[in-house]
Amino acid sequence: MSKDETKEFLDSLPELKKGESYCFKCYPGISCFNECCGDLNLVMTPYDVLRLRRHLEMASRDFVHVHCETSVMPDTRFPVMRLRMTDNAKRSCPFVRTEGCSVYPDRPGACRTYPLGRATRPNDDGGVEEQFFVVREPHCRGFEEPDEWTSEEWLKDQGFEVYVRFNDRYMDLLARFKETGKQLPDQMVQMVVLALYQLDDFRGMIENMRVFDRFEVDGERRKAVMEDDEATLEFAYDWLELMLFRSCENLKPKM
Ligand code: SF4
Ligand code: SF4
Description:
Elements: H1 3-11, E1 15-16, E2 21-23, E3 43-44, H2 46-56, H3 60-67, E4 68-72, E5 79-83, E6 96-97, E7 100-101, H4 109-113, E8 116-122, E9 128-134, E10 148-150, H5 151-157, H6 161-180, H7 186-197, H8 199-208, H9 211-214, H10 219-227, H11 229-245
Antiparallel strand pairs: 1-9, 2-10, 3-5, 4-5, 6-7, 8-9
Helix pairs in contact: 6-11, 7-11, 8-11, 10-11
């Protein structure tokens, strides 16, 4: 689904307003267990890839090769990564097992928010306004359970808060680039893939191009960028902001 199709889909669902609640529980033993973990169009954000690749202890290039289907958005040509489903009759997720999700602590954000859909748009204060929708699929028996949740409680319970920070930065980058009406040239498509989805190779590029010699980056941040995936991804967002919009508050060229 493109971002516009996703918005259309979410708009067709009942909205869960702030403070409103819904009943839901998912657990091993429920009659529909694992039924939702297949035939998915699961778009992975850069932070999803970071968490999954680290969980699987794979080189990022290998992770992308084995687990991702890469395409570009038709309007902006921004690269999109989808989780490659297994080639069986159910098109199962590669990580689903009889006992449940084998990557549970690092499962993608979309698996965490389910059965909620989250839509965001920039607000006038430079922040993000969010809306939630309840996705009631007929096979899902979780809605028959008595446990009650507001969207806030559900996302906290599912460990989604850290995803918000990284995913919203990603969505902001996409939205700002879309506003320019431009399309990414091939070279920039490769750069976005490298910076956002291949963090270990991106670190290699930082070293080879001596990026730290050309920009104001203090010693503590340099160390973190070279050692810590989250810091590398933050730097990648800054780097792309600079490449795409010619300026970035957090990354200034040396005078
Ligand atoms: S279909 Fe619903 S209740 Fe069943 S396993 Fe999936 S999320 Fe849980
Ligand atoms: S990552 Fe885990 S929760 Fe998400 S679809 Fe795959 S098995 Fe299910």
